[in-house]
Amino acid sequence: MAVSHSTSSAPPSAETVNDFYLNCPTGLVEYFFADGVFRWSDDLYRIYGYERGDVVPSMDMALAHIEPADRAAVLAFWDRVSESGGPSSVYVSIRDRKDRQHKLMYSADFIYEGGEPVGVWGVVVDLTQSIHTDRHQLATEAVAASARNRAIIEQAKGILMGRTGATADEAYELISQQSQALNKKVYAIAQEIVDRAARRSPGQQNPRSEQD
C-alpha cells in the first residue's frame, strides 16, 4: 500500500481544494457504538458500485472489496480510530462491484455527544481520477471540508428534530430525500435549512417548513 506525503511547502489554494473536493467522489460513513450499525451515504455506495438497498454495509462487506495487501492496514486503522479517535487516515486500493480498481483515502474521527465519544464518522475520498500531483495535501484539506460539512448536516438534523419531532435517522432521511429530489449534495440542503432557520425569528418559524 503506497502512502504519499506532500513535499510542497506552500498549501494549495482554496480554489484548488474546492475543485478537488467537488470533482473527487466523496462518501461519508457513520458508526455508533451503541447499535454497531454502519450508515453509508449514497455517494459511498456508488464508490463501491452499489445503490442504497443493494447491500447492507458491514466491516466484512467492505473488507471483501479491499485488495488483500491492504486489509491488515485497514483493520489496524479501524482498531486505532475506534479505540483512540483521530483524525487518522489510510490509503487503500479496492475493487468495486464490477472489479474496477479505485484508490481511496479513508479518514475518520470520533463522533462526540456531551463530550463523550459515541461512535466514529469517516470520509472516503476516491482519488482514482484525480489529476493533481499533491494528493496527500489536497485530500487532507478535503477531509477538513467534509468535517465542516458534517457539522452543518448535524445542525440541520437538530433543527428538523426540534421542529418535527423526528428522530436523528428520520431527520437525515428528510434531508436525503430533498437532496435526491433537487439533485443537490446533502450538505447543500443542510446549509439551506440552517440558513433559513437563522433568518427567521422564533415567532415566525413553521415547524414543518424546513422540509419544503
UniProtKB/TrEMBL annotation:
Membrane-spanning parts = none
Q: Which domain of life is it from?
A: Bacteria
Q: Which InterPro entries match?
A: ANTAR, CheY-like_superfamily, PAS-like_dom_sf, PAS_fold_3, WH-like_DNA-bd_sf
ANTAR domain residues are 133-194
A single Gene Ontology molecular function, please? RNA binding
Matching entries from Gene3D superfamilies are given as:
PAS domain, Winged helix-like DNA-binding domain superfamily/Winged helix DNA-binding domain
**Name under which the protein is recorded:** PAS/PAC sensor protein
* Organism field: Pseudarthrobacter phenanthrenivorans (Arthrobacter phenanthrenivorans)
